[in-house]
Model the fold of this input.
Amino acid sequence: MNSTHREPSSADALRLAVVGVGQRADILRHAIAAGEKVVAAVDPSEEGRAKALELFGSDVALLESHEQLTTANNLDAAFVLTPDWTHARIAIDLLEAGIPVYLEKPLAISITGADETLAAARSTGTALYIGHNFRHSPVVVLMRDIIERGEIGEVKAVWCRHFVGNGADYYFKDWHADRSKTNSLLLQKASHDIDVIHYLSGGYARRVVGMGGLVVYGSIDDRADRTGQRMTEWFSMDNWPPLSNTGLNPVVDVEDLSMLMMELDNGVQASYQQAHFTPDYWRNYTVIGTEGRLENFGDTSGGVVKVWNRRHEYAADGDAEYPIAGEHGGHVDADAATVGEFLLHLRTGAPTQTSPVAARYAVAVGDLAAQSLRNGSVPVDIPPLDPELAHYFEQTTVSSSTPDHHQGERHHP
Done:
């Protein structure tokens, strides 16, 4: 192994690289605020490299290929924030060079790519962190706390509805609309929620069924090649109603309406629904236990999680209600926590709440649900991860098991 990784002292600023200077590159500001330094930026486009200078200063090294990083000296880690279909290849190359990797979700666009990436991390002994930041979002932390306190008893069902109100602008005007680059939005977009379902349930899916179709955006003929553009250049809240959108990606073959059902290995049953043409944009979870249920209304600060755990007829107000904390909307709070967790892991080896194993199962569910959806909605069994790989990564992951009297015997996603 060509080890370009160094062991930083506690006084040193970590020397970081970023691969892919797009919409997500802004998360590196959390590392900079923590005193770390971005020393190299990789992007094949002139626009991306110019943005790197704006974000990270004139002394950042500008590179066109991630292969150039594998021979660099004194790197402590690389943030891989490139389009989905490149994740596995880039991560494996960097891991084999001995460079710890923060890899944006999804881990890969297929179960095969996910397993190969985990195997590379294990064989090299190099740190791999998957940016499933939603585990750190205030709404998920709050729901997890309610479950752990036993307020709804033992979890038996989790339902998630995702209203993707900005679906056309976010996913149908660039590469996301091309299944050769995303596989499915049940993988790309839903991987956050699949991971959270596993996290709240304490298990992993063992069987999945998918259903859906391209029911709205497939009928729009106006297409445009947006090479060199960024999403902020075409996004507008005035792009409404959905059929009025123009300039869709030249290839549009992912589904804009999709659903899946899961049976987990601990008996929990779960469902997920995603629509990319709703007027509103948020996600709603319902978690049902043996002694009550919870449901979130809003998924950022200002929202609330309600708990019903007394017997009665319809009641708009919960028997208990908890405000969703946080200083910001969107991913900002979760991004700060996730980047901070990765940096702490680099420095101290501290275990993480995010899990490469859970990230693999999120990919597996999305990948195989898409196969089910496209093949008559037949049920598909999810192959378990190699036990040796699972054991290896469990050593660096915080156990998410809950007290036995609330949750029984569980896995640790």
The mean pLDDT is 93.
